[in-house]
Amino acid sequence: VNVGEETIKKSNLLEWDLENKVNIEKSLKVGDSLSGHFVYGHVDTTLKLKEIVKLQNSWEFEFSLSGGERVKDLKKYIVEKGSVAINGISLTVAQVLESSFIVSIIPHTFNNTNLSNLKLNCLVNIEIDPLARYIGNRYE
Asked: Distance (Å, rounded) from C-alpha 124 to C-alpha 127?
């Protein structure tokens, strides 16, 4: 595997070890049906996992939006019912708080991705919704 400097700079890659699970999906091909959010697999920054709450039928994962300039610049793209990719998993933002946001994780996603291995304060890779980025850049 070859990893470019841009990925190393913006991701949590340097924290990985041989025990880390990585989420990998095949790309869509022209003509495939689209079901879900657009995700390109690019990492914009990392955020810390602030809290995990186990509910009756799901989990709530809260991620901190406090941090450096990159986080501040991306915060405007995190909106309720919008999408965000966390470790490559496209998720819907359930709630936006003053300095954090929450995603709701259903059992299938929890059991079939590396979200079940996350610990408090660990860094996750974040990709903001590409459509929000394009629209935001167009109207700034």
From this structure: 10
